[in-house]
Design brief:
- This protein has a domain of 248 residues: 3-Layer(aba) Sandwich (Rossmann fold).
- The protein is 42% helix and 16% strand.
- The chain is of the alpha/beta class and 495 residues long.
- The termini are far apart.
- The strands form four sheets. The protein has a six-stranded mixed β-sheet, sandwiched between helices.
- Strand 1 and strand 2 form a beta hairpin.
């Protein structure tokens, strides 16, 4: 099948997969979605015994149809190699009635590595395929993990530069140190006096600024994105849900065609959208359980059909989920609107102007695959403590949000369907919050002094991503206001 991608705000804006990857965001401000969702031409049973890399190819070839087999396999081989600390790439651990899919064994110990390890290779291949000779400038907003993972992926990659914006006071100490110590002559990091949504809005504004874009094109640059708005980020995320299902099947935990539930802690919605695409493509998934923290816009949306970002912004112990604008939700809205770019554009315009939109009852009826709930900070800490005390397994705060919500789901439904929880970050990423949840005696201990104690109680060696940054020099110190982001970009590019 010859698959193309269309903008959620103009279905006539139609491009190939490689063109969508290069552009990142559509020129009309929309997100690229498949013009038709492919159907897997394999069954999970066919994939038993295959490696993560082999499964990745079988999945991704359905979505990136203008890539040759050689091109796609080369990208996969370069991405999923020794930079991961386990041969399995994404192992699973059973704890307290669920299978935890560990997506944090990459270079930056967060799930973003799963997609951002391959995105640079997909992007450079896309550039060659489309005859692009301009230098690609990656603009990225991060709530903590994307920035480091993207920079690690693009570090010193010829023909690219990457500029990352993050909320100065909205990430963990480890997350910030990882970014500020990032090496590579083509990497730039900027803290903003604001929150993630302001950083993301600033990036989108630059993408859609015709004057700025013409200015950089004249100097031999073009913008692209490593955020989850890029379809090159989303497609690799579909892979690990297929992989998880195959491994459960392979190990006799489920039977052929048996459905599973998937629980995903999410703020921008991309990670659970990938599971939804996997389900739509044929993977036997029953319920998609969307776990929110106290910034509960997604929980409220699934409960009421109204998306309302006009609310107090909460800084929580799961900072990568501190998001009020769930960018990837637009892809789902487009679909449940009957793939109507007009309806979707109207709702997104309402969100931009009023901070709120409401879907129709007919659209709500198409959300039956989803269950939404949230966990507050106390419940998050309780989940960490309980799982450690009962199983000896240590999870991070974001995974704990998912675990807590899964408990609420079971209480609400009595559903005993076997369940995979997306474990999105290593507990080492959020040392203080995790250790304090396990034992309050750590409350006054500095983050970096908790590395040893966590290693002792978890039995897990300290990841290189943590040990390498302890003594690494700070290389980035730029801070700006949200409205100054375009000036900073121009300064970095010598404009």
């Amino acid at each position: 099948m010859d698959l193309h991608y269309v903008s959620t705000r103009d279905h006539l804006n139609r491009v190939t997969a490689s063109q969508a990857i290069l552009q990142g965001l559509a020129s009309d401000g929309g997100l690229y979605v498949p013009d038709q969702l492919p159907q897997f031409d394999f069954s999970p049973e066919d994939l038993i015994g295959k490696t993560y890399q082999e499964i990745a190819y079988e999945v991704m070839r359905h979505f990136l149809t203008d890539f040759t087999e050689e091109e796609l396999k080369s990208c996969i081989t370069l991405a999923y190699d020794s930079k991961f600390d386990t041969e399995e790439i994404a192992p699973m651990t059973y704890a307290q009635g669920a299978y935890y899919l560990e997506l944090f064994h990459g270079k930056t110990i967060a799930f973003k590595d799963m997609a951002l390890s391959i995105l640079p290779h997909l992007m450079l291949t896309s550039a060659r395929k489309n005859g692009v000779d301009r230098e690609i400038v990656i603009l990225t907003a991060t709530s903590g993990d994307t920035g480091k993972a993207a920079m690690a992926g693009f570090e010193d990659v010829k023909g690219t530069r990457i500029i990352v914006f993050y909320p100065k006071d909205g990430v963990s100490a480890i997350q910030e140190r990882q970014m500020l110590t990032q090496t590579g002559d083509n990497t730039h990091v900027v803290g903003i006096h604001g929150n993630f949504d302001q950083a993301q809005s600033g990036v989108k504004r630059m993408f859609n600024d015709p004057v700025l874009n013409e200015k950089i094109r004249e100097k031999g640059f073009q913008f692209s994105s490593a955020n989850s708005i890029n379809i090159g980020r989303l497609v690799p995320q579909i892979v690990y849900y297929v992989y998880a299902y195959v491994k459960l099947l392979e190990n006799g935990k489920i039977g052929a065609k048996e459905k599973i539930n998937v629980v995903v802690p999410t703020g921008n919605f991309g990670n659970i959208l990938a599971a939804y695409y996997a389900k739509r493509a044929g993977l036997p998934i029953a319920k998609l359980i969307c776990a929110s923290n106290e910034n509960r816009v997604l929980y409220d949306f699934f409960s009421t059909g109204t998306y309302n970002k006009t609310r107090p912004f909460q800084l929580t112990n799961s900072p990568s989920m501190d998001i009020l604008i769930s960018s990837n939700l637009e892809r789902l809205i487009y679909e449940i609107a009957g793939e109507s770019d007009i309806v979707n554009a109207g709702l997104m315009d309402s969100l931009a102007r009023k901070g709120i939109y409401e879907i129709t009852d007919q659209m709500r009826q198409k959300l039956g695959d989803f269950y939404g709930n949230y966990a507050d900070e106390d419940q998050t800490e309780e989940a960490i403590r309980e799982i450690y005390q009962t199983c000896g397994y240590v999870i991070d705060t974001h995974t704990a949000v998912a675990a807590s919500v899964y408990g609420k789901y079971k209480a609400d439904t009595a559903d005993e369907t076997k369940t995979v929880i997306a474990s999105t970050a290593s507990p080492y990423k959020f040392l203080h919050a995790v250790m304090t949840a396990i034992d309050p005696k750590y409350a006054n201990v500095e983050d970096f002094d908790l590395i040893g104690p966590l290693s002792e109680i978890s039995g897990c060696p300290v990841p290189r991503a943590v040990s390498d940054i302890v003594a690494a020099p700070i290389r980035h110190d730029t801070v700006c206001e949200p409205e100054q982001m375009d000036q900073v970009v121009c300064s970095f590019l010598g404009l």
